[in-house]
């Protein structure tokens, strides 16, 4: 046996002896002060908690008015016919593969998304003032935009959110270290827009503040400004040098008209604003689980705008790389195929009109039934609001009672998803609302 073999064996034996001694005298691992004392139990998400309670309920006539997803007249998820067609085309494509997409996403998808939200003839697109990245739906777009502002936007680190707003806006912005403030939006007395309060708050906001705006079908109230009010909002924001950040989750789904639902964004771009857009395809394509979305930066018109847009795009790509590296492909392929095919696009518009039309019909039916029952109060706000959600005006006490008595589920602030109503349950819901209003008034 060689000397080197003897040496190796001796070292191995010595190491084993040392490990045996350590193991023999090893004390139990103490509880981690980090996990025991530092990390608290997070509260349950209210909406997902509501969904869990609904699923556990065995009552035959229970109604889910909390879900933020479209349902057909049989309360079932609806796969859009155009999505089925696109899926069939993609599945038969002999060149289909599962390689990574580029960091910025599927180019055909991002370019079509620009045209959808800004208009195919948008000067901003033609002048190279738009840079876009595919994101994890609208949530990911909001996050990417917030992260970008947190790192690069120097005039302010405060983002103003409407009161109320989609609850996750607060979480997203605070997680990227932006401060949040509020501007009044919903008037409990009129159940409409508190326009004076909104304008007053924007007028008092510090110069350079970031203002998050819902492009259409405001979540959770269903209350939108009129075109004239949007023009006044833009005028105040220009005067105060405020930075617009649009969240558009319902284009085409709100009214059935893609251009109408994008009007506010296009107007701000036309007025020369530099702005951000978070765009979702969850609602208008029914691609909830595929998480298809897009983020856009639009520069204002200037001689250096195109160069600035390139630099900003490069920084957004670095942020994207560190967050998700490459976006998922399937949902983007579905949307891209539809957006870039004339016939499929026309079918998609039909599907949008069908969804938005059914929701509008349910608004009319609910208001009509409540008025027929002579339910105390006024109910015209149900049809004056738009999109998936409606603020009913019910109090938290009434919401909890209607859940306990009638098994009708809605969020504690009285918000209902109009998609949860159908011809089979709208009378039952109206009667439950009537009963709880009379008993608690």
Account of the 3D structure:
With about 450 residues, the chain is α/β, with parallel strands linked by helices. The chain folds into 2 domains: about 45-80 and about 355-440, Aspartate Aminotransferase, domain 1 (Alpha-Beta Complex); about 100-340, Aspartate Aminotransferase, domain 2 (3-Layer(aba) Sandwich), CATH 3.40.640. It is about 50% helix and about 15% strand. It has 19 helices and 13 strands. The protein has helices at about 5-25, 35-40, 45-55, 80-90, 105-120, 125, 135-150, 165-175, 195-205, 225-240, 260, 265-270, 280-285, 305-325, 330-340, 340-370, 380-385, 395-405, 425-440, and strands spanning about 65, 130-135, 160-165, 180-185, 185, 190-195, 210-215, 245-250, 275-280, 290-300, 390, 410, 415. It has a 7-stranded mixed beta sheet, with helices on both faces. Strands 1-12 form a two-stranded parallel sheet. Strands 5-6 form a two-stranded antiparallel ribbon. β7, α10 and β8 (about 245-250) form a beta-alpha-beta unit.
Span of the ends, CA to CA: 98 Å
> What would CATH call the homologous superfamily of the largest domain?
Type I PLP-dependent aspartate aminotransferase-like (Major domain)
Mean pLDDT: 92
Q: Which CATH first-tier class of the largest domain would you pick?
A: Alpha Beta
- Going by CATH, the architecture of the largest domain would be 3-Layer(aba) Sandwich
Number of domains: 2
Portion in strands = 5-15%
Helix content: 40-55%
The total strand number stands at 13
Strand order of the largest sheet: 2-10-9-8-7-3-4
The coarse silhouette is: globular
Tally of helical runs: 19
Q: Flag low-confidence runs.
A: none
What is the fold named in CATH at topology level of the largest domain?
Aspartate Aminotransferase, domain 2
Q: What class would the helix/strand composition place it in?
A: alpha/beta
For the report, how would you describe the main beta sheet?
7 strands, mixed
Gyration radius, rounded: 26 Å
């Amino acid at each position: 046996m060689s000397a080197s073999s003897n040496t190796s064996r001796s070292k191995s034996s010595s190491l084993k002896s040392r490990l045996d001694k350590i193991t023999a005298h090893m004390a139990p691992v103490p509880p981690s002060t980090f996990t025991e004392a530092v990390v608290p139990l997070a509260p349950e998400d209210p909406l997902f908690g509501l969904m869990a309670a609904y699923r556990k309920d065995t009552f035959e006539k229970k109604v889910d008015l909390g879900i933020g997803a479209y349902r057909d007249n049989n309360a079932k998820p609806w796969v859009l016919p155009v999505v089925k067609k696109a899926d069939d085309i993609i599945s038969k494509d002999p060149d289909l593969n599962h390689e990574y997409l580029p960091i910025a996403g599927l180019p055909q998808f991002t370019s079509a998304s620009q045209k959808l939200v800004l208009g195919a003839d948008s000067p901003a697109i033609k002048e190279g003032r738009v840079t876009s990245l595919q994101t994890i739906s609208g949530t990911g777009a909001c996050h990417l935009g917030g992260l970008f502002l947190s790192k690069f936007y120097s005039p302010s680190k405060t983002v103003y959110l409407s009161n109320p707003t989609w609850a996750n806006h607060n979480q997203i912005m605070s997680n990227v270290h932006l401060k949040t403030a509020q501007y009044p939006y919903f008037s409990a007395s009129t159940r409409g827009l508190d326009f004076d309060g909104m304008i007053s708050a924007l007028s008092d906001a510090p110069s350079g503040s970031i203002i998050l705006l819902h492009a259409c079908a405001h979540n959770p109230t269903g209350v939108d400004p009129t075109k004239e009010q949007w023009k006044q909002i833009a005028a105040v924001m220009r005067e105060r040098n405020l930075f617009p950040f649009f969240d558009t989750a319902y284009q085409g789904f709100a009214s059935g008209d893609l251009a109408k639902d994008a009007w506010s964004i296009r107007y701000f771009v036309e007025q020369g604003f530099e702005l951000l857009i978070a765009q979702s395809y969850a609602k208008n394509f029914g691609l909830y689980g595929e998480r298809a979305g897009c983020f856009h930066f639009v520069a204002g018109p200037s001689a250096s705008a195109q160069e600035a847009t390139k630099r900003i795009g490069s920084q957004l790509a670095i942020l994207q790389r560190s967050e998700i590296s490459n976006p998922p492909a399937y949902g983007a392929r579905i949307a891209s195929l539809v957006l870039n095919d004339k016939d499929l696009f026309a079918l998609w518009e039909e599907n949008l009109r069908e969804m938005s039309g059914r929701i509008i019909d349910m608004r009319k039916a609910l208001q009509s039934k409540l008025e027929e029952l002579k339910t105390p109060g006024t109910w015209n706000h149900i049809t004056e609001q738009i999109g998936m959600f409606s603020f009913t005006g019910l109090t938290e006490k009434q919401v909890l009672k209607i859940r306990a008595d009638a098994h009708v589920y809605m969020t504690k602030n009285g918000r209902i998803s109009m998609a949860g109503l159908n011809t089979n349950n709208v009378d039952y819901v109206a009667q439950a609302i009537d009963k709880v209003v009379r008993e608690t008034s």
